[in-house]
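Is this the right way to post structure tokens for a design question? Let me know if I should format differently. Anyway, here goes:
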């Protein structure tokens, strides 16, 4: 029996326990930066592997011997949302796994335990050199004759996916991926816009960069009845908001998705007073790294110029966030083929201007983020969000396909 068949069999055996773990995690969610209890639950469920703590409240667990490894990410944190579902295992602490991280973690644990089980049964992934600098003999990840081989797996239990500073950024900066010679990173995310049972394996950019801006328009205060004696920053800000949308419709390449959204606006203390300043915050998103930074410059210039036209002065600050998340094309195509071989329906159509700090992994190693369809009455980040039965199994199967595909890569990656 080949590697793929052995791992699928072992994975199926782990799913009942993984579903129980998912419910435990869901009932006891932890906010960004406070993930200690969730991390303990997951580490207790991972009976094998070498643990190394990272990024304050996160950890990595290595399963397998020396040499290059495949990384798989699970997010530890929840959102500050009061849950409104009717399940007996609903959260009651004011936090909620409303983005599926409980599902992801349980699926990652199922995969890790399956890999460890096959490895412990006597399978190995021999390196071709003394220090394991190569991955050893390769075979197709599709089940076939011959001895099974199991690539070392690095389980990345990441904190602060929903918060700032980014947990993925801190994991990358810690150097832990380099120390474990991670050749590829694999992730999967539940996605209710994808039909249940279907997996999206889209090559190239799948999530936009996500940067925030803060701006202040300064004018001169005055009486609301005498606007000609003041310099109204509210009018200046209103014109900035309208003009900024032209960056999307008339400056950005129409083939490159771009978003400029103002999320907060603040000005004034009384209805009959023109204030001295108006402030706003929002987000800039783009599906191109080159255009992303040009957008920052064009946005700043536009705000300053429009404010000046209304006799005001603008101060603009752009706060860099996640980069564009681009899937490795070979990983995406080959994992999709492997999923199809296993009977899954695969689509390559899903791209969105949402963001995920998994993009930091993709900036340093070939990476694959898959989107797994789920049944749920509400969307992501909703108080009613609750992926139905089978979600853990679906995500685990997607992660296994990504792991097998990454383990089968022929070329060295630097």
């Amino acid at each position: 029996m080949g590697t793929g068949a052995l791992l699928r069999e072992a994975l199926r055996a782990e799913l009942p326990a993984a579903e129980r773990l998912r419910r435990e995690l869901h009932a006891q969610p932890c906010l960004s930066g406070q993930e200690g209890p969730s991390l303990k639950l997951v580490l207790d469920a991972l009976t094998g592997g070498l643990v190394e703590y990272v990024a304050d409240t996160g950890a990595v667990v290595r399963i397998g011997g020396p040499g290059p490894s495949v990384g798989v990410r699970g997010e530890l944190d929840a959102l500050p949302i009061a849950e409104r579902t009717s399940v007996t295992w609903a959260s009651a602490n004011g936090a909620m796994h409303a983005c599926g991280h409980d599902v992801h973690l349980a699926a990652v644990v199922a995969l890790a335990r399956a890999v460890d089980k096959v490895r412990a049964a006597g399978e190995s992934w021999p390196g071709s050199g003394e220090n394991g600098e190569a991955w050893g003999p390769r075979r197709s990840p599709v089940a076939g004759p011959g001895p099974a081989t199991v690539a070392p797996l690095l389980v990345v239990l990441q904190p602060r996916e929903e918060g700032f500073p980014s947990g993925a950024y801190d994991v990358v900066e810690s150097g832990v991926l380099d120390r474990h010679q991670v050749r590829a990173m694999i992730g999967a995310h539940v996605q209710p816009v994808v039909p249940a049972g279907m997996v999206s394996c889209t090559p190239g950019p799948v999530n936009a960069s996500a940067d925030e801006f803060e701006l202040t328009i300064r004018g001169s205060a005055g009486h609301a009845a005498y606007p000609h004696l003041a310099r109204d920053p509210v009018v200046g800000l209103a014109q900035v908001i309208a003009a900024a949308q032209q960056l999307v419709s008339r400056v950005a390449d129409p083939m490159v998705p771009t978003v400029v959204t103002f999320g907060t606006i603040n000005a004034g203390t009384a209805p009959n007073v023109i204030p001295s300043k108006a402030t706003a915050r929002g987000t800039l998103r783009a599906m191109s790294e080159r255009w992303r930074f040009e957008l920052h410059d064009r946005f700043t210039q536009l705000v300053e110029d429009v404010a000046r036209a209304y006799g005001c002065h603008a101060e603009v600050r752009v706060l860099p966030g996640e980069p564009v998340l681009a899937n490795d094309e070979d990983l995406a195509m080959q994992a999709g083929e492997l999923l199809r071989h296993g009977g899954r329906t695969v689509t390559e159509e899903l791209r969105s201007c949402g963001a995920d700090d998994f993009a930091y992994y993709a900036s340093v190693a070939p990476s694959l983020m898959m989107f797994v369809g789920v049944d749920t009455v509400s969307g992501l980040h909703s108080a009613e969000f609750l992926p139905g039965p089978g979600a853990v199994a679906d995500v685990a199967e997607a992660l296994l396909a990504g792991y097998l595909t990454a383990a089968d890569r022929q070329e060295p990656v630097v």
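Format looks fine. Someone answered above. Worth noting: The domain at 209-322 is CATH 3.30.70.360 (Alpha-Beta Plaits). Residues 54 and 175 are 10 Å apart (CA to CA).
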